[in-house]
Amino acid sequence: MSKSPGPASLRTPILLIGGLDPSGGAGLTLDTAVARGLGLHPLPVLTTLAIQNTSGVVSRADVSANDLQQQLATLKTEYAVGGVKIGLLPTAEHIQIVLGWLKQNQPPAVVLDPVMASGSGDTLVDPDQLSALKDLMSWVTILTPNVPEAMALAPATSIHADNTFEVMHALQAQGPRGVYLKGGHLTASPGNDFFLFDDESCCLLPTQVHSRNIRGTGCALATHLACSLALGASPLDAAARAKEFMNRELSKAYASGQGLYLQISDSPEASEAAAAAVSPHD
Fold first, then answer.
1. Are 186 and 159 in contact (CB under 8 A)?
2. Per residue in 112-129, pLDDT tens?
């Protein structure tokens, strides 16, 4: 007689709001892989289908406002989420729906990756999306812009070694408690990331500088950060874990089609070794 299975392990649900990349390099496909690898249960909520490959974006097919609202409402009846990661919100209408959900539900941790363009440089959002995105920032725990996104949101004409934390404080003043600035576009210190939360700040160092264009890095980092917060990590520890995770994954990227992709092979145990990635900022 076969034994009956024991009780299933309980996983913390995490809400993942964003777009779908059919080439598999970014967006909800990658977010889901990161969340499962860290031992959480992903709840992917679709905002738009970005019809693209590694060469560029052909078009965008947005989910209707009603369908976005229905996805969020349906999940709410069953899941109490431990955190939220927000990626591509293509229109001001999508932003307002997500903002309304955040106000009503007030989840414990919210990470916003303010996606504006694809890795190939093609615009993924409507012209009025930027001003609407700023309305969302006061409901965000940690904002994770790259340099062009930070310049657009701050706003700033440039970001360099002398004004990095000045720009981050300007972003923080718009609402988020924390800012994780991805420094891949900084020519003077490529691979260095910068973190600010309340009054704490640090520089997160790469183990190796990668000049190759590997897809989905911003999505994966923001999702890892949100997952760590949902699991109870402190913001500084979550930032360090996310950077250590990216250091590992960048070194293991694989090729398919014309692109390079993250392998995603994390686990809760592997993510513990992160403290060495942090250096204090004066």
1. yes
2. 999 998 877 778 899 889
